[in-house]
Task: structure prediction
Amino acid sequence: MLLAAALALLIAGIAARFPAFVTAPSLAGVFNDTSILIIMALGQAAVILTRSVDLSVAANVALTGMVVALIDAHHGLPVGLTILVAPALGLVLGAVNGALVWRLGMPPIVVTLGTLTIYRGLAFVLSGGAWINSFQFTPSFLAVPRAELLGLPALSWIAVATIAAAWLVFNRTAVGRGWFAVGGNPVAAAYAGIDPGRARFLAFCFSGLLSGLCGYLWVARYAVAYVDLASGFELDVIAACVIGGVSIAGGIGSVAGAVLGALFLGTIKNALPVVNVSPFAQMAISGAIIIAAVALNTRAERRRGRIILRPQHPQPAE
Result:
């Protein structure tokens, strides 16, 4: 895969000047730093495959993270139950997006732009605008993402497990195949018995579930919860998908592509500060990479072509 080669060249180029960057602990740290982006990119990929987009994923993280932070800080529920609240609430928030797109026929970009604001507003209402800081959390709440197993933090293993689960959903279930079919040609998918609206609804649910999980992981890892948590992160998530070859036109993409796109973006964000690139230049470089990825993917799709449902013209009578 071209992206895998580009990632290898990127790491090799950085290693030529900073050999310490490619040591095993350093690369493991990059993967751990990118784990949340990987998980959220897999959810976003499902939505994009169906010719939709979810702009509310970062707001979902902020709201679910705030809810579990408030529960842990003020109500003292068992940590296992508190953790489960995050993906469950995220699933509900994703279902709200999916239901509005499915049942009311509203454009996904409009729906999720609206719910983005609603979810952040709810986070403000629940918290009163206050931050929840590290000393307010219970040790067990903060310990889960940091717990080490076979030399890697649990956060990294959660990302690995999510990748495996997403691969199974995308490639071995009717739901996953439906996402590809609806994105490739919703009319043909409908003729094949697949409800495009229901497929999009399930994609939004999947995205919401993973975003909710990341709500807990983000808060527990950084030991802080506030209204603007993950602000703007939805753009990184979409960028990771696009860089990984998930077509914004729908129907084309893969789990491996989304993961590699997230790792490519994560490697750049970790490497640029090492080579003393200013934050403003980092933004410009990231934007240029996204544009280049879209251009390359568009050319590849044009060469590959798409399966379309052509009307059958009646044959002239003999």
